Amino acid sequence: MQRRGALFGMPGSSGSRKMAAGDIGELLVPHMPTIRVPRSGDRVYKNECAFSYDSPNSEGGLYVCMNTFLAFGREHVERHFRKTGQSVYMHLKRHVREKVRGASGGALPKRRNSKIFLDLDTDDDLNSDDYEYEDEAKLVIFPDHYEIALPNIEELPALVTIACDAVLSSKSPYRKQDPDTWENELPVSKYANNLTQLDNGVRIPPSGWKCARCDLRENLWLNLTDGSVLCGKWFFDSSGGNGHALEHYRDMGYPLAVKLGTITPDGADVYSFQEEEPVLDPHLAKHLAHFGIDMLHMHGTENGLRDNDIKPRVSEWEVIQESGTKLKPMYGPGYTGLKNLGNSCYLSSVMQAIFSIPEFQRAYVGNLPRIFDYSPLDPTQDFNTQMTKLGHGLLSGQYSKPPVKSELIEQVMKEEHKPQQNGISPRMFKAFVSKSHPEFSSNRQQDAQEFFLHLVNLVERNRIGSENPSDVFRFLVEERIQCCQTRKVRYTERVDYLMQLPVAMEAATNKDELIAYELTRREAEANRRPLPELVRAKIPFSACLQAFSEPDNVDDFWSSALQAKSAGVKTSRFASFPEYLVVQIKKFTFGLDWVPKKFDVSVDMPDLLDINHLRARGLQPGEEELPDISPPIVIPDDPKDRLMNQLIDPSDIDESSVMQLAEMGFPLEACRKAVYFTGNMGAEVAFNWIIVHMEEPDFAEPLTIPGYGGAASAGASAFGATGLDNQPPEEIVAIITSMGFQRNQAIQALRATNHNLERALDWIFSHPEFGEDGDFVIEMENNANANIISEAKPEGPRVKDGSGRVLSTGTHSSEDRDFTPSSSFLVWELAITPLWVIYNDHKVCASERPPKDLGYMYFYRRIPS
User: Ranges for the UBA domain (predicted)?
Assistant: First the structure.
């Protein structure tokens, strides 16, 4: 008990037992096979616990496993020991002390231990002139908590000494997120210097782009060799694309592409297909100019600013942060801020919004013991673990404590300073959620709306059992398309997660002031005088709502009544209203010079919003529907692609396209038929087939092809068919059972994940309650017929419909891309006294003048009817 007391800093402890060199060697001998020297590529976590935000600065320090190099705080290290049996940990602790002062009041030079943790962050709240740091390291052997002080070269075996030195000298795995090292992280593409660009006369307009192969208008990439505009990968929520940019590279070998919409004077998102990673193109301006894009067209001014828009943005940011107002700090549960990593504004605001919602609090923080206990061996790479860790950090109040009273500070400082940690640094979370994403893994600011959808995608794919907290955002949109020539209509539904409102600039209520301001501004620029005070356009929210509800022209509309392309208009209405409505004000566009332009506007967003008048009504009396005829499949001109015009073998159906459609909520067999009948031409084309045929009686029936012996179910198991014949391949079952799982667990997990090995392993970890129930598989087989029947009647997308009256609960005010240095999120707090709370990075205060009119994204909660 004395050793445990010394380790945990308990009162009355007198230190660990002294041991001779031989004793230490004998103590370590049984554990030598588990002690590893970090190799190149190993991530050594010595800054942050895998389950909490404890660090060497925390009271209990941090424990680094000498086998996995994962780090754990004091309350979580025992869990890792019990789960893995790893016994040897390095305990790291940083001590902060006030410097001794001389008679004149100045700090005396004091000899102190050299720092061990070379890349640990210092506390920004402490004045480095007044405090000094002393770092301590020791080996701890569980379960008896034997301690061995470091360094201890004479007494430790050579292997242990080498391993300890390697751990202590290792760099942070999150160095890429450090703003000071951004420019050195992205590699320069080896193709940039000698990139071939075809002289084909292609010129890219500043807007109106679409994929050259499938007409998609989002997630578009410009190939820097031939100027082709093609779509990127597909996401579950119908965003993204069909991977045509990658297909084009495979066909032509042109290596570099830039994402349209990310081009600014500071750079753009460039991807190398050959090198399979985001890269830097030092000649990007020249390569873009080849296609008529002037990325450097931002004029300098006399004061050194590169763009006249910078000053208004700073002024707006001062308003958002309520500069000049003394705000009351808020501490405790729910009032924890997120430290800015230099490019994490978008992430901070979205996550503050997410964890202000009870459904997310219950799904993750409410299930914390179960999620942590059944997390995989590397919890840093598990989405649910990291979501739970972040949620607990924000909601527990553990990292948001008021400063110690002044009279206690003086007393404490005489011995050792124990600073209260205010705010948490989401490095581990950001590293995981941005992994393998070409935009969020880059070093520039990103769009909060895009990250919100990316997060919803991750929540969908990693749901815990049947619970899916992102359902609170999900709603159905009814789209009514009318052929202008025949007046016939078609009604379809799609799933969405946010409402995008255009800015109706023409409806500004202060046009005379804006004209006068613009004249004064130009005159001041010409005469090199100070610019006048900014005047923003005041836009009525009702005008934005009206612009949303007005019909839009449909480009390249194919009329089934005419069986030809025609003019068409589309209107959108809510087929259901979500529990939480996310509203995005579309403040950004591109000018003719390709420079992003911000609508510097003030929108009078209401606290109470009623959109019941936007409820969908369906087919109306007197309306005639467009015939249910699919548009003809356009076969590419490339002769090698003409085989697509022929029916394919059922066993050759593109499984990835099938799964993309199935993840959107459509019946599996319908997805298989859609991909088959569209000739494996991608999920987008198959999606159009589904929309046209989803009302047919046999929509969800198995694929039946003449000449293939009736139902084409020979390869059903490969595509996740259900029922008794859904037997997973034995080779995949064997792989899972070889990892120590029971056979019934393996079969059950594979059936639940359409025989996908990676997803099946995730399913096992997230459904531990089924691992001990050997009767579950039998019960599943007994209910197989019921499952088949229920699949024949698709439930459709999951929605929680209700009233269209919603109350504002929060607004995200950090602007798009890299226009602002930090984030601000306002939350309407109803716990005790109604007030707005502003989250400005790690600082949390009660808001006195909430700038609700300057927001970018707004969160509304449905009012029960």
Answer: 652-693, 727-767
